[in-house]
Design a protein that fits this description.
With 368 residues, the chain is an alpha/beta fold. 30% of the residues lie in helices and 25% in strands. It has two domains: 260 residues, Spore Coat Polysaccharide Biosynthesis Protein SpsA, Chain A (Alpha-Beta Complex), CATH 3.90.550.10; 77 residues, no CATH class.
Length: 368
């Protein structure tokens, strides 16, 4: 029997482009945006097969530690919960999780997953993991690419090179982060893949690459893990060392620079739910192209997304995003959905606490 893969789940994002539902104090990964479970819980479920996966390591912040524990308990999972004292982007977070995985086995296979993605095709996702497994065992850092449907400027792009000895796994010949729209259109037409932000690699290989390209990050995060403290079942990284680590994404820190990158094309449906437009594209619509959740009534309305936490009525409009919560209302054109983050910044600058705080306080009950 093959050694199970160790999942590392990243849960630290704020999800401000899904304001006003997602905010700093209650981000999208812990909300039931699709169905009855949060995307974090759906991710836990996706890696629950004990024949394929080991117990997850979850990276999160102090503020979200009890949400992580409670929602994991609801899924019957007891992950290792690692608390980041400050946000340092995905590079240091993944590195910390990998150091902990390497303690279990220096050559452990590690699967890095963002906890705010929608992947409804679990079986196809597992097949992609199995396809990439041998390449990772052989020393590749395997990305999961997604066939693009439009020239998105918020995603990284991957060009497939020559095939490896492993069937359906290719060398990454080009890896580019967030191009402008003209370049993204060229990539779309040239057969590039989107970078899904999920990675599969051997722990020792990833550690070697970080040590090569980001020695300060390696040094400081290693110290943060070495001097971590256990507190009520949480692993607290040493704050001073972790804060000294360069704030850099794994893409800029390693993936744009390494010669070990490989890619598997994921055949599963995928969305990072990065905006309300992304959500609109991911959900079912009525015959007029409307996607509705909650107490909404629509009349002569087309191609709109409505998320209603209070009675919300639309009349004679089209191509809108309308979001109502107990303390905020947002109305936007769907083609401006990517700019909601700018709107949140403007609300914050104007002194509105609703930019980051929810009016309701969520009660979290956690058994020890």
């Amino acid at each position: 029997m093959e050694t199970p893969i160790i999942p590392i789940l990243l849960t630290g994002g704020s999800g401000t482009r899904l304001w006003p539902v997602s905010r700093d104090t209650m981000p999208k990964q812990f909300l039931p945006l699709f169905g009855e479970k949060s995307t974090f819980q759906q991710t836990l479920s996706r890696v629950s097969d004990p024949n394929l996966f080991s117990t997850p390591i979850v990276l999160t912040s102090e503020s979200f530690r009890f949400f992580v524990r409670q929602q994991a308990q609801e899924e019957g999972v007891s992950p290792t919960i690692v608390l980041e004292p400050v946000r340092r982007d995905s590079g240091p977070a993944i590195l910390a999780g990998t150091f902990l995985a390497a303690r279990q086995n220096p050559k452990a296979l590690v699967l890095v997953l963002a906890a705010d993605q929608l992947i409804p095709d679990t079986e196809l996702f597992h097949k992609a993991c199995i396809t990439g497994r041998r390449a990772a065992e052989d020393g590749s850092i395997v990305l999961f690419g997604i066939r693009p449907t439009e020239p998105k400027t918020s995603y990284g792009y991957i060009r497939q090179g020559e095939v490896l000895d492993v069937p359906d796994v290719f060398v990454v010949s080009t890896f580019v982060e967030k191009p402008d729209r003209e370049t993204a259109q060229y990539y779309l037409e040239s057969g590039f893949l989107w970078n899904s932000g999920n990675f599969l690699f051997r722990a020792d290989v990833f550690l070697q690459e970080v040590a090569r390209y980001e020695p300060q990050m390696f040094k400081e995060v290693e110290q943060a893990v070495t001097h971590a403290k256990s507190d009520l079942g949480f692993t607290r990284l040493e704050p001073a060392a972790f804060a000294r680590a360069p704030q850099k994404s794994v893409d800029y820190a390693v993936m744009e620079r390494t010669s070990k990158a490989a890619v598997v094309e994921g055949r599963f449906r995928w969305s990072d739910i990065g905006s309300w437009e992304g959500m609109y594209q991911s959900v079912d619509k009525d015959p007029l192209g409307n996607a509705v959740r909650g107490a909404a009534v629509l009349l002569d309305t087309e191609n709109s997304l409505v998320h209603a936490e209070r009675v919300t009525a639309l009349l004679g409009v089209k191509d809108l995003v309308v979001i109502t919560t107990q303390d905020a209302v947002m109305v936007a054109s769907r083609d401006r959905a990517e700019d909601v983050k700018k709107l949140v910044g403007a609300l914050h600058d104007a002194g509105h606490k609703e930019a980051r705080e929810h009016s309701r306080v969520t009660s979290v009950t956690v058994s020890m």
